[in-house]
Amino acid sequence: MLKRLRVxxxxxxxxxxxxxxGLNLLIGPNNAGKTSLCSALxxxxxxxxxxxxxxxxxxxxxxxxxxxxxxKERTLEFELAVSLKDGEDPLAYEYALTISTERDxxxxxxxxxxxxxxxxxxxxxxxxxxLMECKxxxxxxxxESRFLRQHDGAYVETTAPxxxxxxxxxxxxxxxxxxxxxKKYLQDWLYYSLNPRSxxxxxxxxxxxxxxxxxxxxxxxxxxxxxxxPRTERxxxxxxxxxxxxxxxxxxxxxxxxxxxxxxxxxxxxxxxxQSMSDGTLRFLAFAYLVHTLAAATHDYGSSPLVMFEExxxxxxxxxxxxxxxxxxxxxSHGQFIFTSHxxxxxxxxxxxxxxxxxxxxxxxxxxxxxxxxxxxxxxxEEMPLGELHFREMLA
Length: 396
What we know:
- This protein is of the alpha+beta class.
- It has 2 domains: 1-188 and 299-396, 3-Layer(aba) Sandwich (Rossmann fold), CATH 3.40.50; 197-279, no CATH class.
- It is 28% helix and 30% strand.
- The longest helix is centred in the C-terminal third of the chain and has 18 residues, at 279-296.
- The protein is globular, with a radius of gyration of 22 Å.
- The model has no long low-confidence stretch (mean pLDDT 92).
């Protein structure tokens, strides 16, 4: 579970610290930094499996404008504190990544390079022990089993190109299982900003049965659930009845490696395809799939993935989301969720979870992130709901 994130010089985040709980809501006006915070987390996740430029392009769409425009600094800084488990053994990780930026030869873009990277662990036999250290391409990797046996030469030294993190280059070997456990956790982070056109597309776009960030691959994800976990599929159907009370089953036509056609069937055996479903119904279906599959899943690192979800209420009567939000455990045991929203009605759903509400305000050079004063807000909630307090700018 993510305990702490610090971001320095990433878009409009000059020096921002975020301490999430299991269930979180980022609120604030436009251009306050909510999406930038999610993009920073997404960039770190992507950088654990691909080169820095590719991660930046997928996370924010371009590379040249990643540094904060007002700081004139040339380095980006990221720090993470994460708690996981290896069986029943608790593992506490600290990860720090500094990236240098330089203008490319054409002067129109940036070249990203790893300036330094460190991964520490505190666990049985480890006391803030470096699992991995990298500085300007010079790398030290810990041979974990050799270290625990107190053998000499526990560290292996090598070099690596600076266009990608050393974390992304780790081989899944018996020599560094704890480092790879952290890598696997980071790679499993999920980000969603759903697009109705992508949700409707029957095209299979991934070998994995997972919904992509824009909603693509939904039909394949549902088809895999249909075949592999019918009980969880039934939970999704039961949730979807909040919108489509007559739905009975999901059915599929002509599933093949390239396209899968998904249908809802009602109690009278009528079929409805994604083209006849509303945008809100498709968004709700994707959300229900995520909540139920994460609750049912088990992971090697003893924690469910981090899920970022931008404005899930779009196109929906917000009250239908209440039952799904209530299924998310605030301790993060069934997935650690971070939502962004502008809807007062969606914000109202967090009135009993004030510790997970984080208020962002725009600023120069940096956005500011604060948590609510619970005692003060609880008194104000006696007069009006949380969404109205946000609308009237009374939360700060």
